[in-house]
Amino acid sequence: MLVLLPVARRFTSGATQPMPACYEITRSPKSGEFYFHLKAGNGEIILRSEGYTKKASAVNGIESVKKNSPLENRYERKTSKNGEFFFNLRAKNQQVIGTSETYKAEAGRDAIRNSCPVCAGLVFGGPLGKTNSHTIYVGSADDPSWFEPTVALFVRNLPSWVLVPPGLQRYEALPP
């Protein structure tokens, strides 16, 4: 099963580019420490770093995410005190590079997300060992004609200019 999802776009220099993920470095006004966030295409933070005293160290942390995120053995799966699920991404030396957002369901945390080793942008993913379907993120394939979607999700949020191909099974949100 191939699922069609709305694509987040970032506008730069008058050009529109798919933006599956981006990094943002911020500085805490209180502590003066630098943090990086890995943001999904919808703007939600999906990974937060530890604090760094130097901006260059935060940049190195981003490079470490790019290097380690494709490696399954770098993920430490955890459960918070309130029962929500999250993971830590660890470097080869076992230091925590970043901590994920929390997920209400274990499946949200455990879904496989295959990332680009250059930019760490999401390419495709799906629930680990639960189904034979995968989500392929539009804009991640060199030739989109290789894949034909069968389902359209979150159609209630589509901008008016987005056309859903005819014949797709449509869902306002996630299917039941």
Write the layout of secondary structure elements.
Blueprint lengths: L2 E2 L4 E4 L2 E4 L2 E7 L6 E7 L4 E5 L5 H14 L6 E5 L5 E6 L5 E5 L5 H5 L1 E4 L6 E5 L8 E2 L14 E2 L16 E2 L6
Parallel strand pairs: 1-13, 13-14
Antiparallel strand pairs: 2-3, 4-5, 5-6, 6-9, 7-8, 8-9, 10-11, 11-12
What do you see in this structure?
The chain is mostly beta strands. It has one domain: PH-domain like (Roll). It is 11% helix and 34% strand. The chain is built from two helices and 14 strands, in the order E-E-E-E-E-E-H-E-E-E-H-E-E-E-E-E. It has a six-stranded antiparallel β-sheet. It has a three-stranded parallel β-sheet with strand order 1-13-14, with no helix packed on it. A three-stranded antiparallel β-sheet has the order 10-11-12, with no helix packed on it. The protein is elongated, with a radius of gyration of 18 Å. Residues 1-19 have low confidence and may be disordered.
Short overview:
The relative contact order is 0.18.
> What is the CATH architecture term?
Roll
Mean pLDDT: 74
Low-confidence stretches: 1-19
Q: Note the total helix count.
A: 2
What keywords describe this structure?
PH-domain like; mainly beta; 6-stranded antiparallel β-sheet; 176 residues; disordered N terminus; 3-stranded parallel β-sheet
